[in-house]
């Protein structure tokens, strides 16, 4: 018989499904035209439907509704959301990127993060009362890292496709992936120093559930334990695990691919499975699971083959997983923001005006000074002060900070067992960090459309370098941002983040007329890889977009018949030759008059190369 079952699970499934359906209907407007992304709308819905307002979503009522379970649920959800997306971010970087940019990454991980940590500490000391210097260092460590999820949206979003140089986008993505795991040394250093103040015997235990109090020993012993347990065990071992797992996974996948044992679904789900596996392994041994996930993703695509194969298979799975995790993660984040703790002048001394002042101080001084101090030492990725300002401003605080807050709670005793210093820390860390998360998502989420409007007002032109031809899967697919229609089957996009990687030895060393049509482009073979995969993305010195020569529909069958014509070996593509046939052409707006091929010089490719594009 019918039974009304308004359970928490059914409510959550209904809301998430309804949001994805509604968002999907206008997703192009939200993401490409309004440039809002997924984080701000999802968090807003979580706030509206959470305990603050409608009370439909309340994680304290989930499952057995045990006291304190919200912290455990938040830690688990944030770990999964960040870990899986870090693997995806790692393999989407160019091949051997960490080897190529090791100097820049080293500066961003050590001096830049240290300056960010200290500047954030000063801002908190100026605004948050009743907390000591060491307690402020702990809270500042939670927001030192740039959020890996929001930073990927900045680096790979529609605005960056139009206006942000590829080198800058790549370093933003790589930094956000790596520094989320490198935040633990700063957090644990402050924690060890705080515990070393009194000589009470105890031990340091993370995530195990045992109570942790001060162990004494002084600063020297604290530094020694920090170096041994944090750097050698927590950081270096996690990097080693990521390298071994990523390398073994890549080799195993290549072995299976050569024998055609892997179908497309399993292949593109590999990063997700790799992230879940590493989260479980590192969680069991107490390692830095976030750093291991990013390392494994980078090693998986170390030679560029994995990324190349995903492009060949028209991978949309990883981007879909990314969006689904963003929806769920940020909607949940909106439900756990502790609004009632934002104004407690009698207990923590925290008030809303203090938090707002802290938000603007963090926005101005947390990251921008550090990048301005160091950007001249990174000329290969940050070319001028404008790019330094962009990178410094867009260092968002998001779901990664929530993860650090909940992890920090496991490093200290419960509030009832804590002394005054630790008690003030535990009372202040939640409202302080969660407010900064909310502040950053709102400010940075609205800054992108505002900056886009400013660029439009001043007539800033999108970047038109580094063109890339890719297949149009449906006639109803909207034209991507900073792209144009090639023909009924292709788009030509500019300044894209991901691109194929190949060896210099495979570059052509002779003149060749290459038409931009889909069929002829795929028939100009360069060793193992075809010209359609190399496209124009590997020729950064082409200064303008090629004009497309389209073939009338009557000539398409003739073009297919000429596919095996020996004349193709002379270096002239079928699409260009078909335009010279005697078959009548139909005058349509999409068919421009064929013009003589134009030679475009492309220096810097390792040896002299000239490529002729039919225009």
From TrEMBL:
Span list, region Disordered: 542-615
Topology class, membrane: Multi-pass membrane protein
Alphabetical UniProt keywords: Membrane, Transmembrane, Transmembrane helix
Biased amino acid composition, Low complexity: 569-578
Assigned GO CC terms: plasma membrane
Name of the molecule in the record: Na(+)/H(+) antiporter
Origin species: Podospora anserina (strain S / ATCC MYA-4624 / DSM 980 / FGSC 10383)
UniProt-annotated location(s): Membrane
GO function term, MF aspect, one: sodium:proton antiporter activity
Pfam family, one: Na_H_Exchanger
Domain spans labelled Cation/H+ exchanger transmembrane: 31-451
Residues annotated as transmembrane: 12-30, 35-53, 73-93, 105-128, 231-248, 268-286, 355-375, 387-405, 425-446
GO biological process, one term: sodium ion export across plasma membrane
Amino acid composition bias (Polar residues), ranges on this chain: 542-554
Organism phylogeny: Eukaryota, Fungi, Dikarya, Ascomycota, Pezizomycotina
InterPro entries: Cation/H_exchanger_TM, Na+/H+_antiporter_fungi
């Amino acid at each position: 018989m019918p039974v009304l079952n308004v359970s928490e699970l059914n409510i959550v499934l209904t809301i998430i499904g309804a949001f994805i359906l509604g968002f999907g209907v206008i997703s192009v407007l939200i993401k490409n035209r309004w440039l809002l992304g997924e984080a701000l709308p999802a968090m807003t819905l979580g706030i509206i439907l959470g305990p603050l307002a409608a009370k439909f979503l309340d994680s304290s009522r989930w499952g057995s509704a045990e006291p304190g379970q919200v912290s455990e649920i938040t830690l688990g959800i944030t770990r999964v959301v960040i870990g899986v997306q870090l693997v995806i971010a790692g393999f989407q970087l160019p091949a051997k990127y960490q080897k190529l940019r090791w100097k820049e990454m080293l500066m961003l991980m050590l001096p830049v993060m240290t300056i960010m940590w200290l500047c954030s500490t000063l801002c908190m000391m100026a605004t948050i009362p009743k907390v000591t210097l060491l307690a402020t260092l702990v809270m500042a460590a939670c927001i030192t890292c740039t959020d890996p999820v929001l930073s990927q949206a900045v680096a790979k979003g529609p605005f960056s496709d139009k206006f942000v140089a590829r080198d800058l986008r790549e370093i933003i993505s790589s930094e956000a992936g790596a520094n989320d795991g490198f935040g633990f040394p700063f957090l644990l250093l402050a924690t060890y120093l705080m515990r070393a103040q009194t000589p009470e015997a105890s031990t340091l235990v993370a995530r195990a559930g045992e109570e942790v109090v001060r162990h004494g020993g002084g600063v020297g012993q604290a530094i020694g334990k920090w170096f041994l347990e944090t750097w050698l065990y927590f950081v270096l071992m996690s990097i080693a695990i990521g390298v071994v797992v990523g390398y073994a996974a890549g080799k195993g996948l290549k072995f299976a691919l050569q024998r055609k044992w892997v179908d497309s679904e399993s292949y593109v789900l590999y990063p997700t499975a790799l992230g879940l596996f590493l989260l479980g392994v590192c969680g069991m041994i107490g390692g830095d699971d976030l750093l291991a996930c990013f390392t494994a993703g980078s090693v998986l695509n170390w030679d560029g083959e994995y990324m190349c194969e995903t492009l060949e298979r028209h991978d949309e799975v990883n981007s879909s997983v990314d969006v689904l995790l963003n929806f769920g993660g940020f909607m949940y984040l909106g439900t756990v923001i502790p609004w009632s703790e934002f104004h407690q002048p009698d207990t923590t001394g925290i008030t809303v005006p203090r938090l707002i002042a802290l938000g603007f101080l963090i926005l101005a001084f947390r990251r921008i000074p550090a990048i301005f101090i160091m950007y001249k030492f990174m000329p290969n990725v940050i070319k001028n002060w404008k790019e330094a300002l962009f990178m410094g401003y867009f260092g968002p605080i998001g779901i990664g900070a929530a993860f650090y807050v909940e992890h920090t709670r496991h490093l200290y005793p419960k509030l009832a067992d804590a002394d005054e210093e630790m008690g003030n820390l535990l009372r202040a860390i939640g409202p302080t960090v969660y407010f900064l998360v909310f502040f950053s998502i709102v400010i940075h989420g609205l800054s992108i459309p505002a900056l886009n409007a400013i660029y439009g007002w001043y007539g800033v032109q999108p970047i038109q370098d580094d063109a890339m031809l890719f297949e149009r899967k449906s006639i109803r697919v909207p034209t991507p941002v900073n792209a144009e229609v090639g023909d009924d089957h292709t788009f030509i996009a500019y300044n894209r983040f991901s691109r194929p990687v190949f060896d210099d030895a495979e570059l052509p060393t002779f003149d060749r007329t290459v038409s931009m049509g889909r069929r002829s482009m795929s028939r100009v073979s360069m060793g193992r890889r075809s010209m359609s995969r190399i496209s124009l993305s590997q020729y950064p010195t082409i200064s303008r977009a090629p004009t497309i020569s389209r073939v009338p529909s009557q000539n398409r069958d003739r073009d297919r018949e000429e596919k095996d014509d020996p004349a193709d070996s002379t270096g002239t593509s079928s699409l260009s030759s078909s335009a010279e046939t005697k078959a009548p052409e139909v005058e349509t707006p999409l068919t421009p008059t064929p013009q003589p091929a134009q030679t475009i010089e492309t220096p810097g490719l390792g040896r002299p190369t000239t490529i002729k594009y039919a225009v």
